[in-house]
């Protein structure tokens, strides 16, 4: 197993082996941005030249679908070909979303756990023209014992700090977004439930 991991380290964008038993690795995104944990697919991670922090990428609606790579990742599967992955079961995801505030803090505005798939449509609209931080991590069982991987981070990896921090994934909502009842992929209308008092 160690020889295989050394070979993978030499052939891929992997920067550092974090947890050799399950091959939780830091990889570089396609554009050379270091990512720890699960890599986001949407919104993507972007960074300007010479910047250590990632950009606030604008999403298309106030209820975006956040997507990330599934666990175990393909690189984990390659590293685990000699055994170990068959011991992993019951993979779920935990998602957190924070609204940025002044200073170096943020307000938790959305959290979901026990997600079975590597994507999630936000169930309540966000504020227009607002910046958000988000992160996701996988939870799973190994031989019946529950484990979690580290929270997803990108850019300048502040791994020794709790989330939220400046390394969390980032996005901003559009200033003039369509009303939440419209689903932005195509022109399909989403059902809106109205409760009557």
Task: Please tell me about this protein's structure.
The chain is mostly beta strands and 197 residues long. The chain has a domain at 40-72 and 87-172: Sandwich (Immunoglobulin-like), CATH 2.60.40. Helices cover 8% and strands 35% of the residues. The chain contains 2 helices and 13 strands, in the order αββββββαβββββββ. It has helices spanning 2-11, 74-79; strands spanning 16-19, 24-28, 34-36, 40-42, 57-58, 65-68, 88-100, 106-115, 119-121, 131-142, 145-148, 153-154, 169-172. Strands 5, 7, 8, 10, 11 and 13 form a 6-stranded mixed sheet that branches. It has a 4-stranded antiparallel sheet with strand order 1-2-3-12, with no helix packed on it. Strand 1 (16-19) and strand 2 form a beta hairpin. The radius of gyration is 18 Å and the shape is globular. The N and C termini lie far apart (62 Å).
Helices, by number, come to 2
Shape category: globular
What is the CA–CA distance across the termini? 62 Å
What's the CATH architecture name of one domain? Sandwich
Beta-strand residue fraction: 35-45%
Task: Please summarize the sheet with the most strands.
Answer: 6 strands, mixed
* Uncertain stretches of 5 or more adjacent residues: 1-31, 182-197
Number of strands: 13
Mean pLDDT: 75
Write the layout of secondary structure elements.
Blueprint: H1 2-11, E1 16-19, E2 24-28, E3 34-36, E4 40-42, E5 57-58, E6 65-68, H2 74-79, E7 88-100, E8 106-115, E9 119-121, E10 131-142, E11 145-148, E12 153-154, E13 169-172
Parallel strand pairs: 5-13
Antiparallel strand pairs: 1-2, 2-3, 3-12, 4-6, 6-9, 7-8, 7-10, 10-11, 10-13
């Amino acid at each position: 197993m160690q020889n295989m991991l050394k070979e993978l380290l030499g052939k891929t964008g992997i920067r550092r082996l974090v947890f050799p038993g399950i091959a939780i690795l830091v990889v570089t995104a396609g554009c050379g941005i270091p990512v720890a944990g699960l890599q986001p697919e949407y919104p993507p991670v972007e960074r300007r030249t010479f910047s250590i922090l990632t950009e606030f990428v604008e999403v298309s609606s106030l209820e975006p679908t956040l997507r990330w790579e599934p666990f175990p990742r393909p690189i984990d599967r390659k590293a685990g070909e000699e055994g170990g992955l068959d011991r992993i079961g019951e993979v779920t995801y935990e998602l957190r979303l924070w609204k940025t505030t002044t200073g170096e803090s943020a307000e938790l505005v959305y959290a979901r756990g026990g997600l079975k798939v590597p994507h999630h449509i936000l169930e309540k609209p966000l504020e227009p023209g607002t910046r958000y931080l988000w992160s996701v991590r996988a939870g799973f069982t190994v031989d019946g014992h529950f484990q979690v991987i580290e929270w997803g981070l990108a850019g300048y990896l502040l791994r020794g700090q709790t989330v939220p921090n400046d390394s969390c994934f980032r996005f901003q909502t559009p200033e003039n977004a369509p009303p939440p009842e419209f689903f932005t992929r195509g022109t399909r209308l989403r059902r809106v439930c109205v409760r009557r008092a």
